[in-house]
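Progress against Task 2.4 (sequence-to-structure conversion) is shown through the following example record, which the project officer requested during the mid-term review.
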Amino acid sequence: MEDPYHCKCFFIKNIQEFENIILDCGFKDEFQEDHGQVYGYVLRVEDKLQHHIKVMPNGNIESEMELPPAYPAAHLNQEHSYPAHQETEEVLRVAEIEYEIINPIPNTCLNRKIKKPDNPTHAVDLPLQEYF
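Structure tokens generated for the chain above:
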């Protein structure tokens, strides 16, 4: 079954070398859901967009683009998340990490449905004071 939110098209052999490189490139260790990954890092690419990369014990990579945690309402559902296929391939290419593409590439990565929110609610704008 295709995953409309995550790219799972890439495999690497050198997990540790890739970790060192993406950390040097500015990826940060931020909270991520546990999908069984060895590690997972995030890179802010725009004010309202970040690139998540998770590397699994077998060398498979799972990646997505989504709003940062400062927009918690966007995390109640995944409609604004999309597979980071092109972005992940670019990171691998620039890092000069040997990788393989896991075929077939799903349609969700080839023809991504990118739905950016018009006016996401920032955490500072939530009416939390009425709960405390």
